[in-house]
């Protein structure tokens, strides 16, 4: 069988954030992140304020901290870059304790670190409170091109199927004494991957047949439309409202 | 006699590569009948099934469903009338949840809201899967997935249910439960199968398709009792069953 419940991003719950319609959350997330990255570079105070807003949203999801922390790992490349930046950037220098770093680099590094953390936290609060089904419905509702929505939806559905097929092929290889140890074993792995592509392609054709057999004519029917009231929208856009205020203060200063 | 639900006359078909799969098939199925379509691998069973709802277009001959010919302008109505359940439920169940999947067919027919919901509920109840409506198809057992696959088609209220190898890959208990389920449904059934005891259990009448023609058509018990006929068309009862 496919991946268990535990490996998915989504965490069941009934918090305020969970209950918001998915499309309002998605709009809220994108607007908020765009506003945060638009903050002036040296507005560190305001950046910390938006970071606190993101932390507040994560707290409101009531998702276990452990779960959020492990998802934060995606940020690591940005953290590394932010840490390196003060040492490699040029311009006026500044001495902090035993080390001398570039002042511009330090500013840019701190800004990058705060912006990345804020954005990732918001993205995690979206991902942990929205099921993949609702994400697909949200994209459909927001009029993202149908083709893209379908690709995403099929990926969600068939990732497990293709994954378990790959796993079965691996077991079958190893049952005949194969072990991937050297470069010499690459052709075997490559041909397995090729076979997997062909099988997936054929499955795609069969799925298409099954879809046509049930009256599919190129457009996914919206059988369960999303709806949102003014209250939902105002809640979903609340973090963005904070970010707008921060942005205005930042550019006025 | 009334208009047959399924009326296939002189159906012939060759694939684009020149391989001819059907050489003039005649088949009539009347309302309320359960008919087994038997035949060895490569006999043309799947090719025939794909003609019933217009996925493949007849090279010669005709297919008519309750009086409506299978032609391109009629495709949507034909696909409502003919419900095909494919062999691999993973091919049939492609939506994120069971409920969405069952709603896909009636959704394509334009149903929305309470009417659609009622269709979904009824279809899931008919296969005993109402409690799994909000689960993802890939989290279900194989037997459950096959039942849901049947529900996805029942939700379109078809006039004929066409099942491709319904008992394949099922453990004996799931196979028995599927048999009970199919017996409980008030719908005309055409069942493609290699599972001869399953055909005998569910279908009074059987049709043997061999080399692209109908080789025999009669009561299942008589056909399965004819050892020579079975042998000629590479059909075999499981070991221990006498012919």
From TrEMBL, chain A:
<keyword id="KW-0812">Transmembrane</keyword>
<keyword id="KW-1133">Transmembrane helix</keyword>
<dbReference type="InterPro" id="IPR012809">
    <property type="entry name" value="ECF_CbiQ"/>
</dbReference>
<feature type="transmembrane region" description="Helical">
    <location>
        <begin position="236"/>
        <end position="252"/>
    </location>
</feature>
<protein>
    <submittedName>
        <fullName>Cobalt ECF transporter T component CbiQ</fullName>
    </submittedName>
</protein>
<dbReference type="InterPro" id="IPR003339">
    <property type="entry name" value="ABC/ECF_trnsptr_transmembrane"/>
</dbReference>
<dbReference type="GO" id="GO:0043190">
    <property type="term" value="C:ATP-binding cassette (ABC) transporter complex"/>
</dbReference>
<feature type="transmembrane region" description="Helical">
    <location>
        <begin position="109"/>
        <end position="127"/>
    </location>
</feature>
<dbReference type="GO" id="GO:0006824">
    <property type="term" value="P:cobalt ion transport"/>
</dbReference>
<feature type="transmembrane region" description="Helical">
    <location>
        <begin position="20"/>
        <end position="39"/>
    </location>
</feature>
<keyword id="KW-0472">Membrane</keyword>
<dbReference type="InterPro" id="IPR051611">
    <property type="entry name" value="ECF_transporter_component"/>
</dbReference>
<keyword id="KW-1003">Cell membrane</keyword>
<feature type="transmembrane region" description="Helical">
    <location>
        <begin position="72"/>
        <end position="89"/>
    </location>
</feature>
<dbReference type="Pfam" id="PF02361">
    <property type="entry name" value="CbiQ"/>
</dbReference>
From TrEMBL, chain B:
<protein>
    <recommendedName>
        <fullName>ABC transporter ATP-binding protein</fullName>
    </recommendedName>
</protein>
<dbReference type="InterPro" id="IPR003439">
    <property type="entry name" value="ABC_transporter-like_ATP-bd"/>
</dbReference>
<keyword id="KW-1003">Cell membrane</keyword>
<feature type="domain" description="ABC transporter">
    <location>
        <begin position="6"/>
        <end position="236"/>
    </location>
</feature>
<keyword id="KW-0813">Transport</keyword>
<dbReference type="InterPro" id="IPR005876">
    <property type="entry name" value="Co_trans_ATP-bd"/>
</dbReference>
<keyword id="KW-1278">Translocase</keyword>
<dbReference type="InterPro" id="IPR015856">
    <property type="entry name" value="ABC_transpr_CbiO/EcfA_su"/>
</dbReference>
<dbReference type="GO" id="GO:0005524">
    <property type="term" value="F:ATP binding"/>
</dbReference>
<dbReference type="InterPro" id="IPR050095">
    <property type="entry name" value="ECF_ABC_transporter_ATP-bd"/>
</dbReference>
<dbReference type="Pfam" id="PF00005">
    <property type="entry name" value="ABC_tran"/>
</dbReference>
<keyword id="KW-0547">Nucleotide-binding</keyword>
<keyword id="KW-0067">ATP-binding</keyword>
<comment type="function">
    <text>Part of an ABC transporter complex. Responsible for energy coupling to the transport system.</text>
</comment>
<comment type="function">
    <text>Probably part of an ABC transporter complex. Responsible for energy coupling to the transport system.</text>
</comment>
<comment type="similarity">
    <text>Belongs to the ABC transporter superfamily.</text>
</comment>
<dbReference type="GO" id="GO:0006824">
    <property type="term" value="P:cobalt ion transport"/>
</dbReference>
<dbReference type="GO" id="GO:0016887">
    <property type="term" value="F:ATP hydrolysis activity"/>
</dbReference>
<dbReference type="InterPro" id="IPR003593">
    <property type="entry name" value="AAA+_ATPase"/>
</dbReference>
<dbReference type="GO" id="GO:0042626">
    <property type="term" value="F:ATPase-coupled transmembrane transporter activity"/>
</dbReference>
<keyword id="KW-0472">Membrane</keyword>
<dbReference type="InterPro" id="IPR027417">
    <property type="entry name" value="P-loop_NTPase"/>
</dbReference>
């Amino acid at each position: 069988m496919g991946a268990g419940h535990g490996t998915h991003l989504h965490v069941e719950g009934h918090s305020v954030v969970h209950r918001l319609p998915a499309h309002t959350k998605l709009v809220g997330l994108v607007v908020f992140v765009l506003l945060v990255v638009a903050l002036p570079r040296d507005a560190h105070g305001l950046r910390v304020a938006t970071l606190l807003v993101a932390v507040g949203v994560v707290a409101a999801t009531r998702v276990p901290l452990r779960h959020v922390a492990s998802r934060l790992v995606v940020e690591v490349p940005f953290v590394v870059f932010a840490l390196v930046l003060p040492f490699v950037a040029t311009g006026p220098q500044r001495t902090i304790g035993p080390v001398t770093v570039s002042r511009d680099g330090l500013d840019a590094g701190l800004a990058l670190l705060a912006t990345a953390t804020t954005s990732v936290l918001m993205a995690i609060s979206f991902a942990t409170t929205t099921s993949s089904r609702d994400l697909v419905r949200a994209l459909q509702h927001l009029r993202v091109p149908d083709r893209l929505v379908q690709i995403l939806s099929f990926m969600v559905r068939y990732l497990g199927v293709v994954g378990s097929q790959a796993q079965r092929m691996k077991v079958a290889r190893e049952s005949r004494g194969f072990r991937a140890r050297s470069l010499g074993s690459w052709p075997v792995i490559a041909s397995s991957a090729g076979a997997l592509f062909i099988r997936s392609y054929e499955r795609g054709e069969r799925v298409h047949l099954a879809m046509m057999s049930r009256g599919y004519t190129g457009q996914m029917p919206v059988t369960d439309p999303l709806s949102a009231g003014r209250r939902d929208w105002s809640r979903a856009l609340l973090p963005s409202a904070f970010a707008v205020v921060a942005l205005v203060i930042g550019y006025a200063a | 006699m009334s208009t047959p639900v399924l009326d296939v006359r002189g159906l012939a078909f060759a694939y684009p590569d020149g391989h001819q799969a059907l050489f003039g098939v005649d088949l009539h199925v009347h309302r309320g009948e359960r008919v087994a379509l038997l035949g060895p691998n490569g006999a043309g069973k799947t090719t025939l099934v794909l003609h019933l709802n217009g996925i493949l277009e007849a090279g010669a001959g005709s297919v008519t469903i309750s009086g409506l010919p299978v032609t391109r302008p009629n495709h949507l109505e034909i696909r409502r009338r003919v419900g095909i359940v494919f062999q691999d439920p993973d091919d049939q169940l492609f939506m994120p949840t069971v409920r969405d999947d069952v709603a896909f067919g009636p959704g394509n027919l334009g149903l929305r809201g309470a009417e659609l919901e009622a269709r979904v509920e009824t279809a899931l109840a008919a296969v005993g899967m109402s409690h799994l409506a909000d689960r993802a198809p890939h989290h279900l057992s194989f037997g459950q997935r096959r039942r849901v696959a049947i529900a996805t088609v029942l939700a379109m209220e078809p006039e004929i249910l066409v099942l491709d190898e319904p008992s394949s890959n099922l453990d004996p208990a799931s196979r028995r439960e599927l048999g009970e389920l199919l017996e409980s449904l008030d719908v005309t059934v055409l069942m493609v199968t290699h599972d001869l005891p399953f055909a005998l259990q569910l279908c009074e009448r059987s049709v043997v398709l061999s080399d692209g023609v109908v080789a025999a058509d009669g009561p299942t018990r008589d056909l399965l009792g004819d050892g020579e006929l079975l042998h000629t068309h590479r059909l075999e009862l499981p070991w221990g069953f006498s012919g």
